[in-house]
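FAQ

Q: What does a record look like?
A: Structure on top, sequence underneath. For example:
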């Protein structure tokens, strides 16, 4: 992360694949849950472009990190330069009587921007 960037948004979400055991679906639902609790209209009001001035770091927690398609998760984010990290976390809830496992994913979506021009540390171009 650039030294000039400050974390300005942190949203958390959870997502579930009830019967399919689909880690990517659960991860995408967790990100969707997280990002639908915020609005980025502030950036345009400050003269910033959320597509070029915003850096987004997504962390997904699931029991089987290798089973998540990080590119599919990345495609959900509408703005910014996005990176996705998948780590061990979340929760699997087996239902052996029915032969499936419910997958619960956790997501943290952090957004960073350079606010130095608003602190008198530099001029916006």
């Amino acid at each position: 992360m650039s030294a000039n960037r400050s974390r300005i948004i942190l949203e958390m979400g959870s997502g579930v694949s009830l019967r399919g055991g689909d880690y990517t679906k659960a991860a995408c639902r967790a990100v969707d849950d997280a990002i639908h609790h915020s609005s980025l209209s502030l950036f345009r009001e400050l003269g910033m472009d959320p597509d070029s001035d915003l850096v987004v770091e997504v962390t997904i927690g699931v029991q089987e990190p290798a089973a998540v398609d990080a590119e599919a998760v990345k495609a959900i984010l509408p703005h910014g330069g996005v990176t996705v990290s998948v780590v061990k976390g979340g929760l699997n809830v087996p239902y052996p009587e029915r032969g499936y496992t419910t997958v619960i994913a956790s997501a943290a979506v952090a957004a960073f921007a350079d606010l130095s021009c608003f602190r008198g540390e530099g001029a916006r171009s």
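Q: Is there anything notable about this one?
A: The chain has three helices and five strands.
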